[in-house]
Amino acid sequence: MTPRDLLLAQARERILITDGAFGTEIQRLGLVEADYAGDLGLGHDQKGNNDILALTKPAVPEAIHRAYFAAGADIAETNTFSANRISQADYGAEGLVREINLASAGLARKVADEFTAQDGRPRFVAGAIGPTNKTLSLSPDVNDPGYREIDFDTLKDVYREQIDALVEGGIDFVLIETVFDTLNAKAGIMAAIEAGEALGRDLPIMLSMTLTDLSGRNLSGHTVEAFWHAVRHARPLTIGLNCSFGAEQLRPHVKTLAELADTLIMVYPNAGLPNELGQYDELPAQTAAFVREWADAGQVNILGGCCGSTPDHIAAIARTVENLPPRALPVPPVRTRLAGLEAMTMA
C-alpha cells in the first residue's frame, strides 16, 4: 500500500494528528552559537538557523520528533522549513541544502519507523517546504510595482533541489506550508510534480495556507476559496491552514474550506496569539477545546499545532479528539494530473 493510500485508510477511521511547532521548541532550549555552528566553519553566524541542527546537533531535532510521537502524533514534519537555497544564503549555508534535507528527513524517518515498530500503528513523514522570504506576486519596491526579486522557474528549481533531497532521505509526502503567496505555492507544486515524474511514482502533496488578516486572505490576496480553486488541480492529499492565528480566529475559515474541498482537511494553528513579548500563552487544554469544536462539527481530518505549540498541546489535542469521527470526504470528480495542469470530467 502506498503512503497516500495508507494515510487515506487511516483517515477514514479516525482524526489523525500531526506534530507541533519546531522553531519555538528549539528556542526554548536556549541554544548558543556553538550549538548551531558546530565545526562546519561556514564563516557566518548560525544562531537561529534551526534547520542546520540536523548536521551540527542532530540530537535536538530527533528528541523533538520523539516527543511529538510520544504525545500521539501520526505525522512528523521535517525540520526543514528554511532548508532551501534562498533562506540558507542568509547564513552562508546554501551549499549545504542537500545535506540538511537528507539528514532532516532521515532523522524523522528513523523515529517514525521506531514508533511504528513498537505498536504497529503507521507513522508518516512530511517533508516541510517553507515559502522562502521571496514573493512571486508582489514587488518589494514600492516605487516599482512590476519589479520581482525572483522568477517562477528559479523558485521552482529552488524547491526541486530541496524536494529531491527530502525524497532521498525518506519522506512520504511533500508539505508546502505557510503559503502566503499562492504563486509561490504553485512553483512548489510544479517542483513536486516534476520530482514525482522523475521518480516514476506518485509523490503526494500537502498544502497549507497562512492568513494575513481576519478576513481570510493570504498576502497575495487570495481567500481560502480562491486558494483551493487555484491549487485543486494538483490533487493535494491534504489542504488546510497553519500558523497565522490561533484556533479561535481560524474557526470560520476552517468551516469554509471543509465545506468546499474534496480532500482531507489538515489544520495546525498557533497556540493562540503571541503576547507583547512574542510568546504564546494559550494552554494545551485551551487549544484542544478550540479544535474540538471543528471535530464536533465534522470539519477536520488531521489536527496539530504551529507556533507556540508543544508536545503537551499535541497530547491534549490527541486525547480530546480520540473518539470523535473524522470529517467525511465528499465524492470527488474524476481527475487526472498532467504536468500540474488540470483536466477534469465529472464522474
Q: What's the short version?
A:
The chain has 13 helices and 10 strands. With 347 residues, the chain is α/β, with parallel strands linked by helices.
Mean pLDDT: 94
Helix coverage percent of residues?
40-55%
Please trace the helix and strand order, writing H or E for each element: HEHHHHEHHEHEHEHEHEHEHEE
Per DSSP, the total helix count is 13
Strand content: 5-15%
How many β-strands, per DSSP?
10
Structural class: alpha/beta
Can you summarize the main beta sheet?
A: 8 strands, parallel
Computed over alpha carbons, the radius of gyration is: 19 Å
Choose one word for the global shape: globular
- Can you list the strand order of the major beta sheet? 1-8-7-6-5-4-3-2
Report the end-to-end length measured between terminal Cα atoms.
25 Å
Uncertain ranges? 334-347
List keywords for this structure.
347 residues; 8-stranded parallel sheet; two-stranded antiparallel ribbon; disordered C terminus
How would you describe what is shown here?
The chain is built from 13 helices and 10 strands. It is of the alpha/beta class. The strands form 2 sheets. The chain has an 8-stranded parallel beta sheet with strand order 1-8-7-6-5-4-3-2. The chain has a two-stranded antiparallel sheet with strand order 9-10. Helix 11 runs parallel beside helix 12 and helix 12 runs parallel beside helix 13. The radius of gyration is 19 Å and the shape is globular. The C terminus is likely disordered.
Question: Which helices and strands, and how do they pair?
Answer:
Elements lengths: L2 H11 L2 E2 L5 H6 L4 H5 L15 H4 L2 H13 L3 E3 L7 H4 L8 H23 L4 E6 L22 H18 L3 E7 L2 H18 L5 E5 L14 H8 L6 E9 H14 L3 E7 L13 H13 L5 E2 L7 H11 L12 E5 L2 E5 L2
Helix pairs in contact: 5-7, 5-13, 7-8, 8-9, 11-12, 12-13
